[in-house]
Write a structure and sequence with these properties.
The complex is a heterodimer of chains A (about 475) and B (about 110).
Chain A: H1 3-21, H2 29-45, E1 50-53, E2 64-67, H3 69-92, H4 102-124, H5 128-147, H6 151-179, H7 184-190, H8 195-211, H9 221-227, H10 230-255, H11 262-285, H12 289-313, H13 319-349, H14 360-363, H15 365-379, H16 385-399, H17 403-427, H18 441-456, H19 461-474
Antiparallel strand pairs in A: 1-2
Helix pairs in contact in A: 1-2, 1-4, 2-3, 3-4, 3-10, 3-13, 3-18, 3-19, 4-5, 4-10, 5-6, 5-10, 6-8, 6-9, 7-10, 8-10, 9-10, 9-12, 10-12, 10-13, 11-12, 11-17, 12-13, 12-17, 13-15, 13-16, 13-18, 13-19, 15-17, 15-18, 16-17
Chain B: H1 2-25, H2 29-50, H3 59-91, H4 95-103
Helix pairs in contact in B: 1-2, 2-3
The chains are: A mainly alpha (about 475), B mainly alpha (about 110).
Chain lengths: ~475, ~110
């Protein structure tokens, strides 16, 4: 037994339990949180480069799960995020007096656990075919969650996600035909720069760019994320897009670092820069709060791609790598907090436009504070985790003389300030206090806890850099051969 | 023999191209899902065909293909259900459907 397979198996078992439990389904969370927290702590305590092959089937046939720095940070942030969003959802999907919300409640919980298990599998696997399965599990849960808000947006998301999955699968088929294995660590040892490998890498990257909603393949994201109920939006924006990103990391920096052309990395960097600029401009133009937050996701995903050429050039120093990884988890926590806070505010005023928030800071100070703290991390202001991430990336960009990347990092931060100050300004507008229904304390606490976590992780900056850096050493094939069975 | 060995992957590639072309030109979501299924069939043919040796057949790609087919069937069923729900909502513009569409802010 290893925490590595339990982290995938337990949420899936919980999913089946959630399908069977009926009316009591939402209380399953109270079992899930301590168990998953325990497993996550166990994972964080594992020695560096621990790996486990599922069912004792050895490579190249078996499926390897591995605890490198990226996996540890992502699974940890995922556990925090899912636990707190789950607590918020406990109220969101409580049976109403007319039992109208219960249909959503029944549907939400199995999807919630499916997403949790799928995302953990995506963060931990090194087997490209297993990653395909993880990608599909996450997409299935994500589409169904999006369908709770808008069926049309969900259908659009589903069709485009299906094409992304198949592009990825085509790449897996080509790689298997060429190397007779689909394990990342084994591929790294025998990668050849031939046409089949390059084609496979190209189609897989294209598929993953769809899944991660990278500009210009982001079209499905804003309608799907903005229409879903608040806890679903939080999970979609915080977690689902990160799974595609982590698989991109595995491909570009673990399986094929030796054969990727610098031009390919440059293209990804450019796409990232365009995503930051385009997403920010669109976020500034929105007058619906949830659409604004959704476009902010498009912009923030851009930074992850912008970091690709910086990471590749920064040979030896893990600064850019750590910056990229920390940005992923900082965005995870801050964006989940922001969607939950936005959900509470919009429910209170029964509207969805920015001007509906008029004077809300006096009626819901804690929720507006949570939104503000999440904004601090997204803008990259000190001392937040978002600041550490952008600082490390900026440092790497300046060191390498990547003037354009540095400029995008700075301009992107300023634009984030513009689009996030806009809703905050509305909450402080006027002098009257709008009358709103009081929300349950747990629901007010959830976004605040996530936002505080995003800001206070900045104080643990060095620790996070160390954990993330263990990934850079794990990229050497020798370091991953250790087995803790 | 070599022609036969390459027949399956080449047919697979042709199916992938055909399916992708269909996906791009067809507008109805049901047709798009069918087109994507053609792409899927092509990929499975590539995967299975390349695992076929002259003397023996490698079972590993077959296991991958079977898993892939299970995923494809599940997703197709899910997509068909989603299309049905959208069609129902459009056909019955009662309160429930109206509430659903006003949820869609964007």
């Amino acid at each position: 037994m290893s925490p590595l397979d339990l982290l995938v198996a337990v949420p899936l078992a919980l999913m089946i339990a959630a399908l069977l439990l009926g009316t009591w389904v939402r209380w399953l969370l109270l079992t899930a949180i301590p168990v998953m927290a325990g497993l996550t702590v166990w994972l964080l305590l594992l020695p560096e480069g621990s790996a486990h092959v599922v069912g004792d089937w050895n490579l190249p046939l078996g499926v390897q799960l591995r605890a490198d720095g990226v996996a540890q940070l992502m699974v940890g942030a995922m556990a925090a995020c899912a636990s707190i969003v789950g607590l918020y959802a406990l109220h969101e999907f409580a049976p109403g007096p007319d039992r109208s919300e219960t249909a959503h409640g029944y549907a939400f919980w199995p999807l919630f656990y499916l997403l949790w298990g799928g995302a953990n599998a995506g963060f931990l696997s090194t087997d490209l075919f297993n990653l395909y399965i993880a990608l599909e599990m996450v997409s299935l849960a994500a589409v169904a969650m999006a369908a709770m808000g808008s069926l049309r947006a969900a259908l659009r998301y589903f069709v485009i996600a299906l094409v992304g999955s198949l592009a990825y699968l085509l790449g897996v088929a080509l790689l298997f035909a060429n190397y007779a294995t689909v394990d990342v660590t084994l591929l790294a040892e025998m990668a050849r720069p031939d046409l089949a490998t390059k084609t496979a890498l190209a189609v897989m990257t294209a598929g993953l760019l769809i899944k991660a909603a990278v500009f210009p393949l982001h079209g499905w994201l804003p309608p799907a994320h903005a229409a879903a109920p608040a806890p679903a939006s939080a999970l979609l924006s915080a977690i689902v897009v990160k799974v595609g990103f982590v698989i991109l990391l595995r491909l570009w920096f673990e399986a094929f670092p030796a054969i990727v052309a610098p031009a390919g990395l440059e293209v990804l960097g450019w796409l990232g820069a365009l995503a930051v600029l385009y997403g920010s401009v669109q976020a500034i133009r929105q007058d619906s709060l949830k659409a604004l937050v959704a476009y902010s996701t498009v912009a923030q995903i851009g930074y992850l791609l912008l970091a690709f050429p910086l990471v590749a050039t920064a040979a030896g120093s893990g600064g850019a790598w750590a910056g990229m990884t920390i940005h992923a988890i900082a965005h995870m926590l801050a964006k989940a907090a922001m969607f939950l806070a936005a959900g509470l505010m919009l429910k209170a005023v029964n509207g969805h436009r920015l001007k509906d928030l008029h004077g809300l800071a006096r009626a819901m100070p804690l929720t507006v504070a949570a939104f503000g703290l999440a904004a601090v991390s997204l803008m990259g202001l000190p001392p937040s985790a978002g600041f550490i991430a952008k600082f490390l990336l900026l440092e790497a960009a300046v060191e390498q003389g990547a003037v354009f990347a540095a400029a995008v990092l700075i301009v992107g931060g300023l634009m984030a300030a513009v689009y996030l100050f806009n809703p905050l300004a509305w909450t402080f507008a006027g002098s009257d206090t709008p009358v709103v229904e009081a929300t349950a304390p747990l629901r007010t606490a959830a976004p605040l806890a996530l936002a505080l976590l995003a800001v206070s992780l900045g104080f643990a900056g060095q620790a996070m850099v160390d954990v993330a850096a263990s990934a850079t050493s794990a990229r050497l094939p020798a370091a991953v051969a250790v087995d803790v069975r | 023999m070599t022609v036969l060995l390459h027949l399956y992957p080449l047919t697979g590639v042709a199916l992938v191209g055909l399916g992708f072309y269909g996906f791009l030109i067809l507008r109805h979501p049901l047709r798009q899902i069918l087109a994507v299924n053609v792409v899927g069939a092509g990929i499975f043919l590539v995967l299975g065909g390349l695992g076929r040796g002259a003397a023996s057949t490698d079972p590993f790609p077959q296991a991958l293909v079977i898993t892939g087919i299970v995923v494809a069937v599940a997703l197709t069923a899910f997509g068909a259900a989603l299309i049905l729900r959208v069609a129902e909502d459009e056909r019955a513009p009662d309160d429930k459907a109206a509430a659903k569409t006003t949820d869609d802010h964007t």
